[in-house]
């Protein structure tokens, strides 16, 4: 019996998840808020980079087709079948007019833009923005992430009150910037060796 590529990928994801549940529900049921096209690309990235991604119980998917005032960063617990949606800022170079919408991706050094693609989460550290986590780009579209110092960190301009007051968040230099009250949750759940996938659901 032939299976579709999506079925095969979903099966791979379920099989790779830690055996904390008899039937890991997979990405689609754990995070129905993520449009299928974007979810499928995240699953394909997990399959493509399975040798680098050694922790598969939790993944993150950022949907940059949504405005920055909308929770668009999904922390997906594959095993428990649940997801948490958070606000995340995008880069200045991806939104030069500060409209609150990401208009383009770039991986060019000095672009201050958000890059699309699959990232591997690295070690945590204390930097200029406090507790942070390093990221390594796994795709050609984000291959310069380490050179550009693209990381996960907190920032005042990513706090919910900024979105309420301005109708949008501030912008980073290309990093995944979260509100100061959310960073501990992100760093704890999205530990080392996991997938962070950034893209657009309307691509």
Give a structural overview.
The chain is an alpha+beta fold. The protein has one domain: Beta Barrel (L,D-transpeptidase catalytic domain-like). The chain has an 8-stranded mixed sheet with strand order 3-2-1-8-4-5-6-7. β6, α4 and β7 form a beta-alpha-beta unit.
Task: Outline the secondary-structure elements.
Layout lengths: L4 H12 L9 H5 L5 H13 L9 E6 L9 E5 L4 E5 L30 E11 L2 E8 L13 E4 L5 H7 L9 E3 L4 H7 L5 E5 L4
Helix pairs in contact: 1-3
What's this, in brief?
The protein has 203 residues and is an alpha+beta fold. The protein is built from 5 helices and 8 strands, in the order H-H-H-E-E-E-E-E-E-H-E-H-E.
What key attributes describe this structure?
globular, L,D-transpeptidase catalytic domain-like, 203 residues, 8 strands, 22% helix, disordered N terminus, eight-stranded mixed β-sheet, alpha+beta
The shape, in one word, is globular
- Kindly report the name of the CATH homologous superfamily: L,D-transpeptidase catalytic domain-like
CATH-defined architecture? Beta Barrel
Report the span from N to C terminus: 32 Å
**Arrangement of strands in the largest sheet:** 3-2-1-8-4-5-6-7
If you consult CATH, what is the topology?
Answer: L,D-transpeptidase catalytic domain-like
Mean pLDDT: 89
Structural class by sheet pairing and helices: alpha+beta
Q: H/E series, N to C? A: HHHEEEEEEHEHE
